[in-house]
Amino acid sequence: MKKICLTSALIPIGFESCTEKKKNDHESLLLLLASGSDSSSTGQACTTTCAKSPEETVGPYPSNYQTLYNTYFRSDIREDRSGIPLTFNITLVNSNNNCTVVKDANIYIWHCDRDGYYSQYSQPGYLGTKDYTASTFLRGIQTTDASGKVSFSTIFPGWYTGRVCHIHARVYVSGNLVATTQFAFPDATNTTVNNFTGYSSHGQNSITNTSDGIFSGSSTDLAKQLICISGNTSGYTGSVQLGISV
Protein backbone atom coordinates (compact mmCIF):
# COMPACT_ATOMS: atom_id res chain seq x y z
CA MET A 1 0.00 0.00 0.00
CA LYS A 2 1.33 3.41 -0.93
CA LYS A 3 2.07 5.64 2.07
CA ILE A 4 0.30 9.01 2.08
CA CYS A 5 1.87 11.99 3.82
CA LEU A 6 -0.26 14.90 4.94
CA THR A 7 0.58 18.58 5.05
CA SER A 8 -2.33 19.59 7.25
CA ALA A 9 -1.55 20.72 10.78
CA LEU A 10 -4.16 18.19 11.99
CA ILE A 11 -2.64 14.79 11.20
CA PRO A 12 -4.63 11.67 12.21
CA ILE A 13 -2.87 8.97 14.21
CA GLY A 14 -1.29 6.43 11.90
CA PHE A 15 -0.24 8.99 9.27
CA GLU A 16 2.97 10.98 9.04
CA SER A 17 3.65 14.49 7.84
CA CYS A 18 5.66 15.18 4.69
CA THR A 19 8.31 16.76 6.90
CA GLU A 20 8.54 13.64 9.06
CA LYS A 21 8.72 11.40 5.99
CA LYS A 22 11.64 13.40 4.61
CA LYS A 23 13.36 13.18 8.00
CA ASN A 24 12.90 9.41 8.12
CA ASP A 25 14.16 9.00 4.54
CA HIS A 26 17.23 11.09 5.43
CA GLU A 27 17.97 8.99 8.52
CA SER A 28 17.63 5.82 6.44
CA LEU A 29 20.23 7.19 4.04
CA LEU A 30 22.60 7.92 6.92
CA LEU A 31 22.20 4.34 8.17
CA LEU A 32 23.18 3.09 4.71
CA LEU A 33 26.22 5.36 4.65
CA ALA A 34 27.28 4.13 8.08
CA SER A 35 27.45 0.58 6.79
CA GLY A 36 29.99 1.59 4.14
CA SER A 37 29.89 0.56 0.53
CA ASP A 38 32.08 -2.45 1.27
CA SER A 39 29.65 -4.09 3.71
CA SER A 40 25.97 -4.94 3.73
CA SER A 41 25.27 -4.09 7.34
CA THR A 42 27.14 -3.15 10.50
CA GLY A 43 24.26 -3.13 12.97
CA GLN A 44 25.34 0.42 13.80
CA ALA A 45 24.03 3.71 12.44
CA CYS A 46 25.43 7.21 12.49
CA THR A 47 23.00 10.02 13.17
CA THR A 48 22.55 13.75 12.70
CA THR A 49 19.89 14.05 15.38
CA CYS A 50 20.21 17.38 17.16
CA ALA A 51 22.22 16.57 20.30
CA LYS A 52 25.40 17.46 22.11
CA SER A 53 28.27 15.12 21.24
CA PRO A 54 29.38 13.03 24.21
CA GLU A 55 32.30 14.45 26.16
CA GLU A 56 35.24 12.05 26.19
CA THR A 57 38.73 11.85 27.63
CA VAL A 58 41.45 13.64 25.70
CA GLY A 59 43.40 10.36 25.72
CA PRO A 60 47.07 9.69 26.37
CA TYR A 61 48.41 11.35 23.21
CA PRO A 62 47.24 14.97 22.98
CA SER A 63 49.56 17.77 21.95
CA ASN A 64 50.01 21.45 22.77
CA TYR A 65 47.35 23.24 20.74
CA GLN A 66 48.74 26.75 21.25
CA THR A 67 52.46 26.05 20.87
CA LEU A 68 52.06 24.18 17.58
CA TYR A 69 49.04 26.10 16.26
CA ASN A 70 50.84 27.41 13.15
CA THR A 71 52.16 23.93 12.33
CA TYR A 72 48.81 22.23 12.81
CA PHE A 73 46.69 24.79 10.95
CA ARG A 74 46.19 22.88 7.70
CA SER A 75 43.64 20.71 5.94
CA ASP A 76 46.05 18.03 4.68
CA ILE A 77 47.51 16.38 7.78
CA ARG A 78 49.12 13.30 6.20
CA GLU A 79 52.74 14.47 5.87
CA ASP A 80 54.74 11.26 5.21
CA ARG A 81 52.15 8.77 6.50
CA SER A 82 50.91 6.12 4.07
CA GLY A 83 47.48 4.55 4.19
CA ILE A 84 44.02 4.47 2.66
CA PRO A 85 42.99 8.05 1.85
CA LEU A 86 40.29 9.47 4.09
CA THR A 87 38.46 12.76 3.62
CA PHE A 88 37.07 13.64 7.05
CA ASN A 89 34.26 16.21 7.14
CA ILE A 90 32.86 17.78 10.31
CA THR A 91 29.82 20.00 10.68
CA LEU A 92 29.78 21.95 13.94
CA VAL A 93 26.37 22.78 15.43
CA ASN A 94 25.03 24.40 18.61
CA SER A 95 22.81 21.88 20.39
CA ASN A 96 21.54 24.70 22.63
CA ASN A 97 20.05 26.52 19.64
CA ASN A 98 18.27 23.91 17.51
CA CYS A 99 21.61 22.80 16.09
CA THR A 100 22.26 25.95 14.12
CA VAL A 101 25.72 25.85 12.59
CA VAL A 102 28.68 27.37 14.42
CA LYS A 103 31.10 29.34 12.29
CA ASP A 104 34.57 30.72 13.11
CA ALA A 105 35.36 27.96 15.61
CA ASN A 106 38.60 25.99 15.53
CA ILE A 107 38.44 22.20 15.41
CA TYR A 108 41.61 20.30 16.25
CA ILE A 109 41.77 16.59 15.31
CA TRP A 110 44.44 13.94 15.75
CA HIS A 111 44.75 10.19 15.34
CA CYS A 112 47.35 7.41 15.03
CA ASP A 113 48.92 6.19 11.80
CA ARG A 114 48.06 2.88 10.15
CA ASP A 115 50.45 1.05 12.51
CA GLY A 116 48.93 2.54 15.66
CA TYR A 117 51.54 5.23 16.44
CA TYR A 118 50.98 8.93 17.24
CA SER A 119 53.21 11.84 16.40
CA GLN A 120 54.70 13.90 19.25
CA TYR A 121 55.26 10.77 21.36
CA SER A 122 57.52 7.80 21.88
CA GLN A 123 55.34 4.75 22.38
CA PRO A 124 55.39 0.95 22.22
CA GLY A 125 53.52 -0.94 19.53
CA TYR A 126 53.46 -4.06 17.42
CA LEU A 127 56.52 -2.80 15.49
CA GLY A 128 58.38 -2.08 18.71
CA THR A 129 58.90 1.27 20.39
CA LYS A 130 58.87 4.19 17.95
CA ASP A 131 60.07 7.68 18.79
CA TYR A 132 57.98 10.25 16.93
CA THR A 133 58.39 13.09 19.42
CA ALA A 134 59.77 15.37 16.71
CA SER A 135 57.01 14.52 14.22
CA THR A 136 53.67 16.27 13.67
CA PHE A 137 51.83 13.90 11.30
CA LEU A 138 48.08 13.30 11.49
CA ARG A 139 47.28 16.39 13.56
CA GLY A 140 45.44 19.39 12.19
CA ILE A 141 43.35 22.46 12.90
CA GLN A 142 40.74 24.08 10.70
CA THR A 143 38.29 26.97 11.23
CA THR A 144 34.61 26.30 10.53
CA ASP A 145 33.20 28.19 7.54
CA ALA A 146 29.82 29.93 7.24
CA SER A 147 28.17 26.51 7.04
CA GLY A 148 29.93 25.28 10.17
CA LYS A 149 32.08 22.90 8.16
CA VAL A 150 35.71 21.82 8.11
CA SER A 151 37.39 19.14 6.02
CA PHE A 152 40.64 17.23 6.52
CA SER A 153 42.66 15.09 4.12
CA THR A 154 44.12 12.22 6.11
CA ILE A 155 44.42 8.42 6.15
CA PHE A 156 42.26 5.75 7.71
CA PRO A 157 43.79 5.20 11.17
CA GLY A 158 45.08 1.87 12.40
CA TRP A 159 44.68 0.53 15.92
CA TYR A 160 46.71 -0.14 19.01
CA THR A 161 46.21 -2.46 21.98
CA GLY A 162 43.05 -1.76 23.93
CA ARG A 163 41.39 0.63 21.45
CA VAL A 164 39.28 0.42 18.33
CA CYS A 165 40.03 2.72 15.36
CA HIS A 166 39.11 6.28 16.30
CA ILE A 167 39.73 10.00 15.80
CA HIS A 168 40.08 12.60 18.57
CA ALA A 169 38.61 16.09 18.32
CA ARG A 170 38.64 19.27 20.38
CA VAL A 171 36.63 22.43 19.70
CA TYR A 172 37.72 25.98 20.53
CA VAL A 173 35.34 28.95 20.38
CA SER A 174 36.88 32.42 20.76
CA GLY A 175 40.06 30.70 21.89
CA ASN A 176 38.33 28.75 24.67
CA LEU A 177 38.13 24.95 24.80
CA VAL A 178 34.43 24.00 24.76
CA ALA A 179 34.40 20.30 23.82
CA THR A 180 36.56 17.18 23.73
CA THR A 181 35.25 14.06 22.05
CA GLN A 182 36.18 11.02 19.94
CA PHE A 183 34.73 9.47 16.79
CA ALA A 184 34.45 5.82 15.76
CA PHE A 185 34.21 3.97 12.44
CA PRO A 186 31.70 1.20 11.62
CA ASP A 187 33.04 -2.18 12.72
CA ALA A 188 32.58 -3.72 9.27
CA THR A 189 34.66 -0.95 7.70
CA ASN A 190 37.39 -1.50 10.29
CA THR A 191 37.46 -5.20 9.39
CA THR A 192 37.75 -4.41 5.68
CA VAL A 193 40.57 -1.92 6.24
CA ASN A 194 42.48 -4.24 8.56
CA ASN A 195 42.51 -6.86 5.79
CA PHE A 196 43.98 -4.40 3.29
CA THR A 197 47.60 -4.02 2.18
CA GLY A 198 49.61 -1.94 4.63
CA TYR A 199 47.17 -2.67 7.47
CA SER A 200 46.92 -6.45 7.34
CA SER A 201 50.37 -7.05 8.83
CA HIS A 202 48.94 -5.86 12.15
CA GLY A 203 46.03 -8.28 11.85
CA GLN A 204 42.46 -7.86 12.99
CA ASN A 205 41.63 -5.99 16.16
CA SER A 206 39.73 -8.02 18.79
CA ILE A 207 38.22 -4.77 20.12
CA THR A 208 34.96 -3.58 18.52
CA ASN A 209 33.01 -0.38 19.11
CA THR A 210 30.76 -2.06 21.65
CA SER A 211 33.70 -3.51 23.61
CA ASP A 212 35.92 -0.42 23.39
CA GLY A 213 36.44 1.30 26.73
CA ILE A 214 35.35 4.68 25.36
CA PHE A 215 32.50 3.85 22.99
CA SER A 216 30.89 0.93 24.84
CA GLY A 217 29.05 3.02 27.42
CA SER A 218 25.88 3.71 25.44
CA SER A 219 24.50 2.74 22.03
CA THR A 220 22.82 6.15 21.90
CA ASP A 221 26.12 7.90 22.48
CA LEU A 222 27.86 5.66 19.95
CA ALA A 223 25.37 6.71 17.26
CA LYS A 224 26.36 10.34 17.91
CA GLN A 225 30.04 9.44 17.59
CA LEU A 226 29.87 7.05 14.65
CA ILE A 227 31.31 8.38 11.40
CA CYS A 228 28.99 8.19 8.38
CA ILE A 229 31.29 6.44 5.92
CA SER A 230 31.21 5.96 2.16
CA GLY A 231 33.74 4.73 -0.39
CA ASN A 232 36.07 1.74 -0.35
CA THR A 233 39.73 0.87 0.13
CA SER A 234 40.64 3.15 -2.78
CA GLY A 235 39.50 6.04 -0.62
CA TYR A 236 36.87 6.77 2.03
CA THR A 237 34.84 9.85 2.92
CA GLY A 238 33.73 10.17 6.53
CA SER A 239 31.28 12.76 7.84
CA VAL A 240 30.09 13.63 11.33
CA GLN A 241 27.96 16.22 13.05
CA LEU A 242 29.66 17.58 16.16
CA GLY A 243 27.25 19.11 18.65
CA ILE A 244 28.43 21.63 21.23
CA SER A 245 26.59 23.71 23.85
CA VAL A 246 27.46 27.40 23.52
Fold topology:
Elements: E1 5-6, E2 16-17, H1 18-35, H2 69-72, E3 85-94, E4 100-101, E5 106-110, E6 122-123, E7 130-131, E8 139-143, E9 149-155, E10 166-173, E11 176-184, H3 187-194, H4 219-225, E12 228-232, E13 235-244
Parallel strand pairs: 1-2, 3-13
Antiparallel strand pairs: 3-4, 3-9, 5-8, 5-10, 6-7, 10-11, 12-13
Q: Can you tell me about this structure?
A:
The protein has 246 residues and is α+β, with helices and mostly antiparallel strands. Helix content is 15%, strand content 28%. It contains 4 helices and 13 strands. The strands form 4 sheets. Strands 3, 4, 9, 12 and 13 form a 5-stranded mixed beta sheet that branches. It has a 4-stranded antiparallel beta sheet with strand order 8-5-10-11. Strands 1-2 form a two-stranded parallel sheet. A hairpin with a 6-residue loop joins strand 6 (122-123) and strand 7 (130-131). The chain is globular and about 45 Å long. The relative contact order is 0.22. Mean pLDDT is 86; it is low at 1-43.
Number of helices: 4
Percentage of helical residues?
Answer: 10-25%
Overall pLDDT score: 86
Strand content: 25-35%
Question: Major sheet: size, sense and barrel closure?
Answer: 5 strands, mixed
Brief overview:
The chain has 246 residues and is an alpha+beta fold.
Labels describing this entry:
single chain; alpha+beta; four-stranded antiparallel beta sheet; 28% strand
